[in-house]
Amino acid sequence: MNSKLSERPVEIVMIEDDDGHARLIEKNIRRAGVNNPITPFASGTEGINYLFGADGSGLVNKGRPLLVLLDLNLPDMTGVEILGRIKTNEHLKRIPVVVLTTTDDAIEIQRCYDLGCNVYITKPVNYDSFAHAIRQLGLFFSVIQVPAPD
Amino acid sequence: MRLQPILLGIGFAILIGMSGATAWLVQHATEDARLVNHSVVVQGKLSNVLLNVRRAESGQRGYLFTARPAYLEDFTPAETLATQLVAEVRALTADNPLRQRELDQIAASIAAKFAEMKRVMAFRAAGEEERARVEVLAGQGRRLMNTVREQIDAAIADEAQLLNERGLQSRNTDQLLLAVTLLGAAFIIIIGAVSISLVQRSTRKAEIARQELEGTNNNLERIVQFRTADLTEANNEIQRFAYIVSHDLRSPLVNIMGFTSELETLRADIFDRIATLTAEIAALNGQAAEAESKTEQLGADFDEAIRFIKSSIGNMDRLINAVLKLSREGRRQFHPQTVDMRALLDQIAQTVSHRTMELGARLDIDALPQVESDQLALEQIFANLIDNALKYRRSDVPLHIRVHGRVNANQAIYEVEDNGRGIDAGDHQRVFELFRRSGKQDSPGEGIGLAHVRALVRRLGGTMELKSELGQGSTFTVILPLQWSVNARNAA
């Protein structure tokens, strides 16, 4: 059974407060040929509500193929907190989380990997590099394996 | 405190006074003793006068009895002696008119006595024994003798009184001497006591002042510590601020740049569409050439706008990166170690060797003192300074850069000297400010090199100086502490 992201209906959940960035990320991912649905959220709260459901248990997304694209600098909470909650949730802990943020602080990076983040990418300042990085991420998405449902 | 010299002066004055008084009194006592002695001598001589008169008299008696000339041998020298003694006493008491008068009388009486004795002896010598006997019986000789004795006794008594007075005076002088000595000693003891108490008091005051000073010092140190902590905190705040601001500025910039790129990619589609539409309209109206040139003009304007936007974004991006770099540098932890500055500068010279060769420039590095500091920071500092010297050279003069150093007290002083275009005196401060540059802007740069260098030097606990004259070259001086101190890391 093939469980490559690009070949399965994996939904990309993007938590990114900057609309412009969200749009550019989406465009560049698409340019890499990734056509999976992307669900954007502009705040941590909205993202959490979507991922964990109304009861907050995460049961709603149990076994659903998801990938989280997470920004760390959010207006209402830090992405680190969201990452921690996902990785400690029984139903969501296997969801691949890609941290995509401006911070390249070594301690922050360490902390994210400690919490179980799968990929940490620093948004390049320069747009060309930014676009390039996102496209590569898109290419990367097309080859990574996501866990098969139970 | 000011009483001390006064007391000392008084003490010395008393000592001098006492010494003077003592010397005077001792001299006085000597004089007194001499006078006492003098009186005793006078008394002795006067007694001798009487003795000799009596001796002459007893000689005379013997002669009268026996008529033997042997008795004259007693008589004759006694007269000479008596007269001589009277003369001696007269000389001794020349200063005493009373004694002189008494001596006049005594001399007269003695002369009368001797005249009488000689007269009677003359009778005896002539064989007139009876006549001599009658003369003696008449008692004139005895009366004369009594007069002589009384007068001499009176003179001796007078002299005794004088002696008594002089003895008394001598004792007085001695007592005075003793009193002055004791009084002086007492004064000196009192002054000594007062001085000691004053010294003790001033010592106590000094001790109190010392303790106060110590307290103030401690306090000052605490204040300095507080201030340093405040400054460090403020500095960290600025670093964080710079970091956050540069980060937050980046996000919208990515959008601006991103969507500008999107516009650019859209451009081809838009203009193709416009071209197609214009062509269709032109075909309908028959004015193809004109429409085409208009479309081209629009395209040029569009491209120009995009170009300006992109170049501005590029500038802003560089500035933000510069701030970010500075703030990142500001948070870097230093690793102090002993740095061989000569080797460090040689390394930098190696790195820029192709440029110096290209420019025909000379880069001389003298012997440089070692310093305990952060190697990487020092590399950045001197690489920046040398890079600046290479950049801002004069076109008409071959560039000559010289790096020299020396040690002054606990500081290492390094100078990077060039014969480049120099910096106007008005810009000496400005060149160290962020994003500020001076002179002809013909070299690329963000204007952060010197700001960065100065920030680094400050963080290393050092200072920077600039000597420069427009058109004459510049000398950048970096002054660093020879020994790394913990404060250097925390401050600045």
Q: Which value, in Å, is the CA radius of gyration of chain B?
A: 63 Å
Work out the largest interface and the residue count of each chain. Answer: A-B, 15 and 17 residues
Q: Return the string of H and E elements of chain B.
A: HHHHHHEHHEEHEEHEEH
Spans where pLDDT lies below 50 across 5 or more residues of chain A: none
Gyration radius of chain A, to the nearest Å? 14 Å
**Nearest-integer average pLDDT of chain A:** 85
**Shape descriptor of chain B:** rod-shaped
What's the number of extended β-strand segments of chain B? 7
Helix/strand-derived category of chain A reads alpha/beta
Give me the secondary-structure category of chain B.
alpha+beta
Low-confidence stretches of chain B: 488-492
Strand content of chain B: 5-15%
What is the terminal-to-terminal distance of chain B? 46 Å
Characterize the main sheet of chain A.
5 strands, parallel
| Helical segment count of chain A | 5
Describe the structure.
The complex is a heterodimer of chains A (150) and B (492). By secondary structure, chain A is α/β, with parallel strands linked by helices. Chain A has helices spanning 19-31, 44-52, 79-88, 106-115, 127-143; strands at residues 11-15, 38-41, 66-70, 97-101, 119-122. A five-stranded parallel beta sheet of chain A has the order 2-1-3-4-5. In chain A, α4 links the parallel β4 (97-101) and β5. Chain A is globular. Chain B has 492 residues and is of the alpha+beta class. Chain B is built from eleven helices and seven strands. Chain B has helices at 3-66, 70-92, 97-125, 129-138, 140-285, 288-331, 341-351, 353-359, 375-391, 449-459, 486-490, and strands spanning 336-339, 362-365, 371-374, 400-408, 411-418, 463-469, 473-481. Chain B starts with a helix and ends with a helix. Residues 488-492 of chain B have low confidence and may be disordered. Classes of the chains: A alpha/beta (150), B alpha+beta (492). The interface between A and B is medium-sized, with 15 and 17 residues.
